[in-house]
Task: inverse folding
């Protein structure tokens, strides 16, 4: 797969981030989303590749852009699977919260798992703990595994999870164990990736969140040597039928990186919209803005942090 494609993906996420960032704090969820979608779709048309959206923002009946099954790009090769979210954590933009990003993950054609938008249990860690955790183990045992792998006192280990009512019991368990908690309002993609990067202060992610976000997290963690383990949460018969519609019959299966995105030629790009655990958000100035992006490739294990100065007089004003 052409390594230049990864940098082209960053151009796409930058456009989406710039467009949606203008709606920060204005409380208008719909405008933030539509701006991000339109900008991402517009730039995708110029990318020389043949991308099949495996995870989009909805079905063709729900949206006319960036829907699951849409073909992207202006070329015939390379053929790739694409998971995207033009505005991950939309409420973070609308209400000035952290961790909003524009996100794209790419894998070779046929390797990315198609998943419905339902919840999964998740545990994500960085490279030092990868291959050692087990989502089937009790919580305190996984905590001990990560602390030993990082040579930390348990009291100094930081666990991130979404601050949700469904996590109240889990939060109390973590407090009883004695770890530090980083509770986030939204954005478990950024948080899961942060477990595998130095300097973020985040060591482990646990809890439940969306299945599409698990796939995008797996792509990034595969590029960084980290690991995510997930399994579907099936509480209703409708959810079981939905999984079967997606070709998933074993509802108890544990999904790891390789199951979600494959194990080679994976690319990931994200641009911050609001400040977060992973990236700074967009900063506007006279006639322009500054964006911060992360670009990852599994084949080379490179991680590029890209700070881009945009000048609106000389490029499309999204």
Result:
């Amino acid at each position: 797969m052409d390594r230049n494609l990864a940098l082209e993906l960053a151009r796409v996420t930058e456009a989406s981030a710039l467009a949606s960032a203008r709606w920060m704090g204005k409380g208008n969820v719909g405008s933030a989303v539509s701006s991000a979608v339109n900008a991402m779709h517009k730039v995708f048309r110029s990318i020389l590749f043949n991308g099949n959206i495996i995870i989009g923002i909805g079905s063709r009946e729900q949206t006319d852009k960036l829907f699951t099954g849409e073909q992207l790009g202006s070329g015939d090769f390379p053929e790739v699977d694409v998971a995207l979210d033009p505005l991950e954590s939309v409420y973070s933009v609308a209400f000035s919260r952290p961790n909003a990003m524009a996100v794209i993950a790419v894998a070779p054609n046929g390797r990315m798992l198609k998943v419905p938008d339902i919840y999964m249990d998740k545990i994500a860690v960085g490279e030092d703990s990868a291959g050692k955790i087990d989502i089937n183990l009790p919580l305190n045992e996984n905590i001990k595994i990560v602390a030993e792998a990082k040579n930390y006192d348990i009291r100094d280990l930081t666990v991130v999870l979404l601050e949700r009512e469904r996590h109240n019991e889990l939060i109390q368990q973590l407090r009883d164990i004695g770890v530090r908690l980083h509770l986030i309002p939204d954005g478990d993609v950024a948080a899961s990736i942060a477990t595998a990067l130095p300097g973020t202060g985040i060591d482990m992610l646990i809890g439940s969140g969306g299945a599409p976000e698990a796939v995008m997290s797996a792509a990034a963690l595969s590029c960084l040597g980290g690991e995510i383990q997930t399994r579907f949460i099936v509480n209703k018969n409708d959810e079981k039928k939905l999984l079967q519609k997606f070709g998933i019959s074993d509802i108890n299966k544990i999904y790891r990186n390789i199951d979600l995105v494959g194990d080679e030629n994976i690319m990931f790009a994200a641009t911050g919209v609001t400040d977060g655990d992973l990236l700074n958000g967009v900063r506007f100035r006279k006639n322009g803005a500054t964006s911060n992006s992360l670009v990852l490739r599994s084949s080379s294990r490179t991680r590029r942090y890209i700070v881009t100065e945009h000048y609106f007089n000389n490029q499309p004003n999204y």
Q: What stands out?
A: The chain has a mean pLDDT of 95. The chain has two domains: 4-110+266-314, 119-261.
